[in-house]
Design a protein that fits this description.
Rossmann fold, about 45% helix, five-stranded parallel sheet, globular, alpha/beta, 19 helices, 3 domains, single chain, about 450 residues, Helicase, Ruva Protein, domain 3
Length: about 450
């Protein structure tokens, strides 16, 4: 392309078994700024689409000299690439044919005795819609990765299965669990699996927000509503319009805010501070807490009816000490992520370092594990692996040798050692029992018995 040429409006595959028509249609598109590739056989259609990325495919329905029909081709194209828009070319406007192709994945259709202006509008709109679809798919992939939950324990598998099941529904969700167990990630996954996932996911941490600002932060305010309100302001409820509002540490909400949240959950309406006008709230609410809400209800510190409204669906996150088989996966994920981000190259933990991590109970849960890996990366000598010494040498390390007073009974320690070694082997063997048995130096039947006794059968893939 020289400097005087306009940039291409898009690359279009013209697929038609009539070479004269394909050439004429391609020329018409080229005159209007599009690049084209014309193909006249079904096999060439499949070959070209596997070799190049097109902005649009125009596909003839009638392939007289081919074993594949136009509908067959449409199905194969759509199965291999769900995003590239396909506009069907047809010699008739038979409603049944049109409906069949649209159901098969075509975006639109053009009659061959077409209106030129209408055809060019369909072409332009289809290409733009295809680009928007790809952008949205990329956004959703980033969203899924951002809130990905790592682990293959039975507990995590069950939680993810439940999220996929109730995610598309509009019910409120209450996430409970100790500090650092990953409640924020679960809330993000609920948003990802909801029908609202292409809209915003907005978070308010009640524990970190000053109490006198929560009302305004949530619902917004009117100019002059209080000292410092120099202009009208939207709150997070309006910012999350169409999406998900995540209320973290909901147990810290004042009773005044709890009363307003009841109205919000019940009627999907709210008022900005200083206004009498009710506004509609188009949001899904997900809340989380690390405290015992039923106990707070009994003590009169949390409204019972709000508690029941929030826990239409409840997700309980187990502490990391109860799902230690997830530690190797989490630890290597954090090591890989942090080293690539901070150092520009990948560093992982040695198998001995992973064994050491499995011995700790992690009272700070996943957050504590992540921070420990970060510290080890910063403080250790550059190298390919993080070793047990790198972990032990951390200031205030929890991996120092324990005193004899803290020792556990031999039988318990042997059982823990056995569990740790089996978890490590199963992770290294990617869930394959026979391979893990070879790593452990035992036969397959013995390992299967251990997996059953130690309740680790979910590690098998």
């Amino acid at each position: 392309m020289n400097d005087t040429q306009e940039p291409s409006k898009g690359l279009i595959l013209v697929a038609d078994d009539d070479p004269v028509w394909a050439s004429a249609f391609s020329s018409m598109l080229q005159l209007r700024g599009y690049e084209t590739v014309a193909v006249t056989s079904a096999m060439d259609v499949l070959r070209k689409t596997s070799e190049s990325n097109f902005d649009l495919i125009t596909l003839d329905l009638n392939w007289e000299n081919s074993k594949l029909s136009g509908v067959d081709l449409l199905g194969k194209l759509r199965a291999s690439d769900p995003w590239t828009p396909i506009v069907v070319l047809t010699s008739s406007s038979n409603v049944r044919d049109v409906v069949k192709t649209i159901q098969g994945g075509a975006l639109d259709y053009i009659e061959k005795n077409f209106d030129r202006d209408k055809t060019m509008l369909i072409i332009a709109n289809s290409i733009e819609l295809g680009r928007l679809r790809r952008q949205n798919d990329s956004f959703l992939q980033e969203l899924r990765d951002k809130y990905e939950i790592k682990g293959n324990s039975q507990a995590i598998q069950t939680i993810m299965a439940n999220i996929r099941r109730f995610g598309p529904f509009e019910s409120t969700v209450l996430i409970t669990g100790e500090t650092g167990t990953g409640k924020f990630l679960v809330a993000g996954q609920i948003h990802y699996y909801s029908k609202r996932r292409d809209k915003k996911f907005v978070r308010l941490d009640m524990n970190l927000t000053p109490r006198d600002l929560v009302d305004s932060m949530l619902f917004g305010h009117r100019k002059g509503a209080f000292s410092g309100a120099i202009e009208d302001r939207k709150g997070l409820v309006e910012e999350a319009k169409g999406g998900t509002l995540f209320l973290d540490e909901i147990s810290d909400a004042s009773q005044d805010i709890q009363a307003k949240l009841k109205t919000l959950v019940d009627n999907k309406v709210f008022r900005r501070v200083g206004e009498n006008e009710e506004r509609i709230a188009d949001i899904r609410i997900v809340a989380a807490t690390n405290r015992d809400l039923p106990e707070m209800v009994r003590e009169g510190k949390f409204f019972q009816d709000l508690y029941y409204r929030l826990k239409a669906v409840e997700v309980r996150l187990p502490p990391l000490r109860d799902r230690k088989e997830d530690i190797p996966i989490l630890a290597q994920h954090f090591a890989r992520q942090e080293s690539l981000q901070q150092l520009g190259y990948e560093r992982l933990l040695s198998s001995e370092a992973l064994s050491l991590l499995l011995e700790h109970d992690w009272p700070g849960n996943v957050r504590e594990l992540r921070l420990s890996i970060q510290a080890a990366l910063v403080c250790s000598e550059p190298g390919n692996e993080i070793t047990p010494n790198d972990l032990r040498n951390l200031q205030g390390s929890v991996f120092q040798s324990k005193t004899s007073a803290a020792r556990k009974p031999l039988k318990e320690k042997m059982s823990e050692f056995q569990r740790v070694e089996i978890i490590m082997a199963m992770n290294e063997a990617e869930g394959k029992v026979e391979r893990a048995a070879r790593l452990l130096g035992i036969d397959r039947t013995t390992l299967y018995r251990y997996l059953t006794e130690l309740e680790l059968k979910h590690l098998i893939t």
